[in-house]
Amino acid sequence: MLISFDWLKQLIHTDKTAEEIGALLTGAGLEVEGIDTFDMVQGGLEGIVIGEVLTCERHPDADRLNITTVDIGAAEPSQIVCGAPNVAAGQKVVVATVNSTLYPAGGEPFKIKKSKIRGAVSEGMICAEDEIGIGQSHAGIMVLDTDLPNGTPAAGFFGLGSDKVFEIGLTPNRADAASHFGVARDLQALLHEHVILPKVGDFKVNNTSRPIAVEVQNTEACPRYAGVTVSGVKVGPSPEWMQKRLRAIGLSPINNIVDVTNYVLHELGQPLHAFDADKIAGNKIVVRTVEAGTTFKTLDGVERKLNPTDLMICNAEEPMAIGGVFGGEESGVSDETTSIFIESAYFSPDWVRRTGTAHGLKTDASFRFERGTDPHMVILALKRAALLVQEVAGGEVSSEIVDIYPEPIKNREVLLNIERTHLLIGQYIGVERIKAILTDLGILITGESDTHLSLSVPPYKVDVTREADVVEEILRIYGFNHIEMDENLATTFLAKFPNPYAEDVTETIMSYIAANGFHEIITNSITNSNYYQPAGEAEVASLVKVVNYNSEDLDVMRKSMVFSGLEVLRRNINRRQRDLKLFELGKVYEQQDGDYKESCRLSLYMTGNVTAESWKQPSMKSAFHDLAGVVQNVLRKLNAGDFEVQNLADNNYMRQGIAYVKNNTVIAELGVLDTSVARFMEVKEQVWYAELNWDYLLKKYKDKLVADELPKFPEVRRDLSLVVDKNVTFDQLKKVAFKVERKLLQGVNVFDVYEGDKIEAGKKAYALSFTLQDKQQTLTDKVIESTMNRLMQQFEKQLGAFIRK
User: Fold this and answer.
1) Which of 666, 700, 734 is the last residue of a domain?
2) Is residue 719 annotated as involved in ligand binding?
3) Which of 194, 515, 570, 684 gives the lowest tally of CB atoms within 10 Å of its CB?
4) Residues 6+ away with beta carbon under 8 Å from 301
5) Which CATH number characterizes residue 49's domain?
6) Looking at the domain assignment, is residue 87 inside a domain?
7) pLDDT value at residue 755
8) pLDDT digits (tens, 9 = 90+) for 465-523
């Protein structure tokens, strides 16, 4: 956003330099990213002054030249050779001094040097208007009617001096500062000066010969709509002063009517629009929506198809403008326009944002409406525009002001705790200072006690809705730099984090996964709702929809990490990178019955070969246990403790796999992605996928390390081969073993699984190894044999196992 310093000084008095004002604004949250110089004319008339011709005599060696002496405010007069026919003693003239540069209209710039002309010394140049770039005349030098002292810069006389322009990085929450008046409002609090609003007391209705009726059918989208007619205008170029103001902030003048609407927008922050009154069919404005698919040609000549959520400004027959966004080609002001209807309204930010996004339209008006304008500024801006139109284009106000405002927008009431305000600021600044800042910012104090201030916050302060926001307003004006830092830093408040080491734990786990050959990916949490269609209506209904999406492919928040990872797999596989191990830590979202839930998930993907082909061994396809090993080690590192392993059930994306369950909560799921899901995403390869409930695991994580003394006695291994039903899992066998023997049994491992024609159908054989150890003494054969017999008995009893000899 560009702000003219000269324009700003018309609204608030200050003797400070542009650099000092820039520093104040930055400290108050309006970051000045740069201060540029804008010259009203090229070069800014630098080095060009007002002088007085003291003497004028004919050049002895040239009939058309004169030798003059000119007082330019220096210790001695300057001798200047001049060829203008109208030069004479006693004149006040414009002088380009030695070393100044001239930028003549339509010519190349040149530097003034001390020189000799036909033998006579010349120390400067007396200028015509085209020679300094302010006009086209070259009939003679300019003769000024002024009493200004000799040596006065000519830029001041012509009102063409340089302007300083602030480039402000306006943050989305500071819609109140999106104008010169808005910035001046902050300076009012910073400088303790009063803002000078443009005077509109001279506004009057000259006649009512051209009334325009207004009907607002959608007051949700347009809570306030006002307008007035000005007749007898003459469209043409704006006056030079207005053009210069607009050019200073990067706008190109168009004509006096359009320039007035732009001028008021950037002055007061209230967008306006001017319609050709003769093109308003039926002399009636109707603010409404239209049927989907209605075509409308905007000012840029593009024909657009309208949506049922586009608010349109219509006449009695057809649309004329997209409310708050863009005008129409047919109803705009042209050179033939003689009567105009000026619109000033307050449009709902949500409606304008949705429409602007849908049509890819971003204008100065929509920029402000989307963030929130001031509904109380509507009439003031309308009167200001009408007066300016009369000033620059003539005409008369030919209707009463129409103001449709059925439900006035009220100020927000906020109760400010004085003690908590000082606590949040971190320093006592005094109640009177707080009250002065609030008053200067336009926040009304409606009540006061020893402990609280009752405040009424105007609606243009769109980001001030609660006590903490008010404190932020006070602090940014008081100045963060004025908060003293004690030698001994302390705090009176510490947040209760569930795990103060969450970042460290996360970094440890991420490093472990990466060390196992996985590459981290970061994907968009906004995704395509079509991905979830095959899973059914219930899945689609639980999605969190994006209200103002920019693309049909990015219209919902992801409910699962599956699809964003598959997008990455597809892209890599299409580029012949087929052996992939990826992981991502990200958020997922869902909604049920209007309640929204956000949670964090750790996802892992494996596809292709897990080992590369070499002379020592053939390549090996990634398998379930390759991913399961990593997941189980992650759970161990997170001290997940004992957890159950269950068959995966009710999963929309994996057709087979397991779930790790602890305290009836699924902490991880692991399996192969359903072929239909992968192929829907154009991934033909088999994909192993795991998803961990990261929020739960971090919440339950306890940083406890238990160290055991190194065993003094040897461990013993015994092997068993068991034939069990096909549905019996290793996890079940392991649980039975540890339930039977808690003291001596240190570990159970499966080193072979067999299914085939050598055993009964519906059965499978596990080859298990058992590690036994007594930490107090050496195990004897008798104890070992007794332990193994008890294990075999329970395997037979509880799981129907048959022990193979």
Assistant:
1) 700
2) no
3) 515
4) 329
5) 2.40.50.140
6) yes
7) 87
8) 999 999 999 999 998 888 887 776 666 555 555 555 678 888 989 999 999 999 999 99
| Amino acid at site 11 | L
Same domain, 135 and 245: no
What residue type is 82 in one-letter code? C
Q: Are residues 236 and 145 in the same domain?
A: no
Q: Are 74 and 90 in contact (CB under 8 A)?
A: no
Judge if 468 and 584 occupy the same domain. no
Closest CA to 274 of 334, 213, 202, 363: 334
The distance between the two most distant Cα atoms of the chain, rounded to a whole number of Å, is 138
H or E, element range at 154: helix 154-158
Q: What is the pLDDT of residue 761?
A: 85
Q: Are 517 and 608 in contact (CB under 8 A)?
A: no
Residue 579 assigned as binding residue: no
Contacts of 324 (CB under 8 A, 6+ apart): 271, 311, 345, 347, 351, 352, 355, 365, 366, 369
Is residue 68 within 8 Å of 126, Cβ to Cβ?
yes
Residue 618 has what pLDDT?
84
Q: What is the pLDDT of residues 30-85, one digit of tens each?
A: 999 999 888 777 787 889 999 999 999 999 888 889 999 999 999 899 999 999 99
pTM of the model: 0.62
Out of 176-180, 501-505, 521-525, 632-636, which region has the weakest mean confidence (pLDDT)?
A: 501-505
Contacts of 763 (CB under 8 A, 6+ apart): 723, 724, 725, 726, 755
Q: Under DSSP, is residue 527 helix (H, G, I), strand (E, B) or coil?
A: strand
Q: Where are the beta strands (DSSP E) in 272-357?
A: 272-276, 284-289, 295-297, 303-305, 311-314, 319-322, 326-327, 339-346
What would the two tokens of residue 680 be? 């829907």
Q: Is the residue at 495 inside a domain?
A: no
Cα gap 805→802, rounded to integer Å: 10
The verdict on 324 and 386 lying in the same domain is yes
Give 220's strand partners.
Answer: none
Q: Quote the CA–CA distance of 221 and 497 in Å, as a whole number.
A: 42
Please name the amino acid found at residue 717: R
**Tally of domains within the chain:** 6
Same domain, 663 and 791: no
Q: What is the mean pLDDT of residues 232-256?
A: 91
Identify the CATH number of the domain in which residue 799 sits.
3.30.70.380
Q: Rounded distance, CA 792 to CA 294, Å?
A: 80
Name the one residue in this structure whose structure tokens are 């003539």.
394
Residue 487 DSSP symbol: S
For the record, the structure tokens of 499 come out as: 């795990």
In a domain, 207, yes or no: no
Which pLDDT belongs to residue 562?
Answer: 92
Residue 493, domain member (yes or no): no
| Same-domain pairing of 230 and 139 | no
Judge if 722 and 693 occupy the same domain: no
By residue range, what is the domain housing residue 274?
Answer: 213-404
| Residue 472 is assigned to a ligand binding site | yes
What single DSSP character describes residue 559?
Answer: S
Residues 126 and 142 in one domain: yes
The CATH number linked to 548 is 3.30.930.10
Whether 303 has a binding-site annotation, put simply, is no
According to DSSP, the β-strands at 745-754 and 620-621 are unpaired
